[in-house]
Every structure is written in C-alpha cells, then in structure tokens.
Predict the 3D structure of the following.
Amino acid sequence: MGCQTIGGAGCTIGPEELDGFLSEQLAGLDVDGRSVALVIPDDTRSCPLPRLLRIVHRSLVGRVRELVCVIALGTHEYMGPARIAEWTTGDPGADLAEAFPGMEIVNHEWRDPSALVRVGRIGDERMAELSGGRLSEGSDVLVNRRVAEADVKLVIGPVLPHEVVGMSGGNKYFIPGVAQEGFISRTHWVGALITSSHIIGAPAVTPVRAMIDEGAAMVPGERYCIAFVVRSHTTELESVSIGTPEDAWHAQARIGARTHVEYVDEPMPTVLSLIPDRYHDIWTAAKGFYKTEPAVAAGGEVIVYAPHITEVSQVHAEIYEIGYHCRDYFVKQWDRFKQVPWGVLAHSTHLRGLGSYDPRTGVEADRVRVSLATGIPREVCESINLGYYDPATIDPGEWAGRDGVTVVPDAGEVLYRLHSGGIDGADGPFPVTSGRPV
C-alpha cells in the first residue's frame, strides 16, 4: 500500500469524503482471514475517534479472523469501562459489544509482564548512534502481546506537536503507546536531554523518533497507520493519510507543524493555561506548560489553571519524592537520581523547563516560574518546587484583560513560538554532548 492523502492545511474533510476515502483504502488492505490489532490513543488526545473507529470497524469486521482494539496508554492510567465507552462511541453508557460487534477493546496493560512480549533488542552502540551520543545503554524492546501477535497492525491517531519526540503519531503509538516502561523511559530521557523547548514541534526524524522507529520496526507482521491532523480546538479533520506508519506520519507531520503552531511577536510575560477536562492529573495537564514555554519571556510565569485536578500523578508516585527540576539538576547529580525511573525524571524536566544548576552552591536557576492553580494543596505544590494559586481567586475572563497576561484556552493543543525562532533568555540549541550519556 502506497501512502494516500486527502485534505491539507486549512481544509475540512466532510463525513462522506472521509467515509469514502477510508472505506476504499481499507478495502484494498490484505486482511481477509487474518488477525488485526487496531492501536488507538487514549482520551488525553483530542480527535473524533468514534467517527473514525466506526468506519474502520465496518470496513474490517466480517473479513478478518480476529479484531482487537488496544488503547495506547504508554504509562498513563488504565481507562475504566465508562471512559472507554465514551471515548470510542461518544456515550459513556454504550454497550461496546453492540456498538462494535466482533471487536474487543482493551487497555494496554503495561504494568503486567505477562501482557508483554520481547520483539528485539537495540544494542549499546546502536542506541548511541540513534540518540546522537546522548545514551549508550541498550534496551530490550517489549510490546503488547495482543499487538505483537496480530498479523496486521493498524494505528489510528492524530499528529501534533509533542514535547518528547517533536511531532506525535505514527510509530509513537507502538512506542511508547503499547510498549514496556523500560524502553519508554529511555526515549523520554533522550528527549529530556535535548529539552522539550528545543524538540517540540520539530517535524523531522529527531533522535527520539529514530529510537522509536527502530523499535517499532522489530514488531512482527504488517504495520499500517491512519494518521491525521485535527483542526485546533475542534473535532474537524484537516488532513488524513493512510500508509505505513513512517510515510503516513511524515505526510501529516508537515501539516501539523504548520496548523498547530501559533507565532507571537514578543515573549509573553505571564500565561494562564486553561486545562481541559480530558487531562486528569498534572502528568498529562503539563502539556499546558510544554506548549507555551518556548514563547514565554525569561523571568515570566506559566500558571496551569485546572480546578478539576487533585493529583500530580495517578500512576507515578516518584514525582512527589523528587519534585520538578531543570535538566541539569539531575544530570549534574546523576549518581543521586539514576535509580529513579527515567521517564519520571524526564517528565520533571519537561514541566520545570529550561534552567541551570550549580552543584557547588546547590543553586538552581529556572528560566520561568511554573505555578499550579488546581485542587492540589499549597503544601504539595511547594514540596515539588512549583508555585501555588488558589483557583477560586482566579477569574480567567478578568485575567484576560490584564496587561502582560495571555490566557490560553483549551491549553495543550497549540504550540506557541516566537516569530524570531529563538527562546527568550536561552542560549540556543544544546549540543549533542549536552547532558550526561549513561
């Protein structure tokens, strides 16, 4: 199957056009009598999944021997039955057996070793090559057993700026989506060494993308992908590609890098990021910081406004112990922190942003301030090195009228950058040798 695309930047793909395109492409897919695993995002992503899933289900059921749909959680919390029903059908009370007869929908059970299977290994030297010298420790590649054992794998997922890999989508739904935590942590730590500010929104094959592609290529069977770009803050599709995960991602990454980036003329002194309900903890809501940091003024502040959030992480308790710090805080004290899961270290640096650390004085200097206006108590915020606001004292409408304040609705969707292309107060791109290879 060659890569086929409809739509483009600024386009709107109507329901009939989408149905006709996908139905025709899937009719030509060699799936008759074979087992098929669909790999879909969890509900922290914004996309019209029910619309897409109905078309794919109708096009495959009755032709395939077995059809399973695996939710690519990475290391996010497992989704319960009502959340799965709402995410895949739009109705939390829906009966999935009636909505999608002949198809099972399951979580990627990343905590269960028996649910994973080893598909290969990336050796030390190859890992160093892929990571640009940032990481010299190899890793086994383990993925979800249901996905690995299916004859055909079909990813269905959006492409948009991402803090770890550059642009999400494609093979990222295999790794970290349905992978084992060990290799996930390695990819995230390489992204942290590069820093979120410098990798986010890059539509190229970044070192992290290279690691992901290498691991995904070890997954047996045929791999395909329906990659797409959703118009920001809507459920309308601008563009859709179907082909190999590499080709479909490449076609959509170029579009997403144009339509999901907003450029500003001057650095923003204060940002109030309004976090939507689809983010359930700070681990996921941190996207409201990631996607504004590159355009925030040095010495400025980002306030993550999410009264509905009461937990820092529903899964990764280690973040309460280490708190949030810049990259060099960990790199320059590596022996102290190397036993902490590297994915947790990476998340910590991504939310704290650019900064420096002097091990002689113990002084950490962060480029911007980060504060939470959530249901998380002040003492917890301060213990993890973040500022605190009582959300009851913040009226987003009133704040929008203040000088120097930018209120970002539906934060986490659009990446903000300066027209100049630089980052205010930063030294520029970090060299390959930046950070400590491990």
About this structure: The first strand starts at residue 4 and ends at 7. Residues 429-438 have pLDDT under 50 and may be disordered.
